[in-house]
């Protein structure tokens, strides 16, 4: 991975090209909250799983910040530079989930209640999520965010060798089969 700035470009290959505008924004913000909730349940002793889940959060952060014209690279650099080992890593995980939910709540008001986007509020919340992410990586892995991002791009490249397709998503071999199981019932 060349840089945090290059990551957004590399990660965008794996975005559904049929999603644009508001649908893309909704997917990325809802996905961010979902991934933060999944991470809250990860066994922190399983370092590879931790790395993969942090990578998934990074993917949604990169795509949602792209939608809102915020710089993933700038936010990540700031977060990594300011990261210190937190006393309570679990507290930081829940704080990251809370802050991502605040983004979703704000965007719910924009999408469904005709509010205007408050870029200052969004930027502040994204800064908090990025800061929490960097502290969690430092606390649980200590390998550096570049390794997390590279692992994520490698995983997505294997899953979607020619970029995102709905077919590859539906027929994927890895991941949670809960949805497929629910659809059969």
Short description:
The chain has about 180 residues and is mainly alpha-helical. It contains 9 helices and no strands.
Quickly list its features:
185 residues; mainly alpha; 9 helices; 0% strand
Describe the SSE topology.
Blueprint: H1 4-12, H2 21-39, H3 47-67, H4 72-82, H5 89-113, H6 119-140, H7 145-159, H8 166-170, H9 178-184
Helix pairs in contact: 1-3, 1-4, 1-7, 2-3, 2-5, 3-6, 3-7, 4-6, 5-6
Molecular structure report:
The structure is a single chain. The chain is mainly α and 185 residues long. The protein has one domain. Helices cover 72% and strands 0% of the residues. The protein contains 9 helices and no strands. Helix 1 runs parallel beside helix 7 and helix 2 runs antiparallel to helix 3. The longest helix is centred in the middle third of the chain and has 25 residues. The model has no long low-confidence stretch (mean pLDDT 86).
């Amino acid at each position: 991975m060349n840089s945090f700035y290059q990551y957004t470009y590399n990660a965008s290959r794996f975005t559904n090209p049929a999603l644009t505008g508001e649908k893309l924004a909704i997917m990325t913000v809802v996905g961010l909250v979902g991934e933060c909730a999944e991470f809250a349940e990860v066994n922190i002793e399983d370092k590879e799983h931790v790395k993969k889940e942090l990578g998934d959060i990074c993917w949604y952060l990169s795509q949602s910040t792209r939608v809102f014209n915020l710089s993933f690279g700038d936010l990540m650099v700031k977060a990594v530079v300011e990261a210190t080992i937190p006393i309570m890593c679990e507290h930081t995980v829940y704080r990251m989930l809370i802050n991502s939910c605040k983004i979703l709540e704000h965007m719910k008001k924009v999408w469904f209640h005709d509010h205007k986007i408050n870029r200052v509020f969004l930027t502040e919340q994204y800064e908090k999520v990025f800061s929490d992410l960097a502290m969690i990586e430092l606390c649980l892995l200590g390998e550096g965010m570049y390794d997390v991002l590279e692992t994520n791009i490698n995983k997505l490249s294997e899953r979607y060798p020619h970029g995102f397709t709905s077919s590859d998503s539906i027929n994927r071999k890895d991941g949670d089969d809960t949805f497929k199981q629910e659809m059969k019932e």
